[in-house]
Amino acid sequence: MKTWLKRVLIAGLIWFTGATSRYVRINWNVLERFYRERQPFLLAIWHNNVFTGMHFMRGYPYAIMISRSRDGDHINWVAERFGYEGLRGSPALGASSVLRQALREIEAGEADPA
């Protein structure tokens, strides 16, 4: 119950913060063109922007590389609530396998890993 409550609070905080924030979209047309034309691409963001990015990019079916750690379990749960697929790996646990999984999904056209 405690874990579930933490996750719901984090998702709610992301939703509230995102809904009350103002975004400036720079070169957004490039990203939209890639998405519209189903062109594979890799979008990278800093750790401190992961939650803002989840809200900002919601509605796009991207896959996100997420650590296999316990914290990663929480992030993955929240990411799924925003419509993302978590590709689980970390430098110590499966970094190469998550990269191969991302490449397979790009090749198959199943997701646009971000």
- Mind describing the biggest β-sheet? 2 strands, parallel
Unreliable runs, pLDDT <50, ≥5 residues?
A: none
Strand order of the largest sheet: 1-2
Shape: flat
Relative strand content? 5-15%
Provide structural commentary.
With 114 residues, this protein is mostly helical. The chain has helices at residues 2-19, 28-36, 50-56, 70-81, 95-108, and strands at residues 63-66, 85-88. A two-stranded parallel sheet has the order 1-2. The mean pLDDT is 82.
State the main characteristics.
two-stranded parallel sheet, about 110 residues, single chain, mainly alpha, 5 helices
Short description:
The chain has 114 residues and is mainly alpha-helical. The chain contains 5 helices and 2 strands.
Describe the protein's topology.
Layout: H1 2-19, H2 28-36, H3 50-56, E1 63-66, H4 70-81, E2 85-88, H5 95-108
Helix pairs in contact: 1-3, 1-4
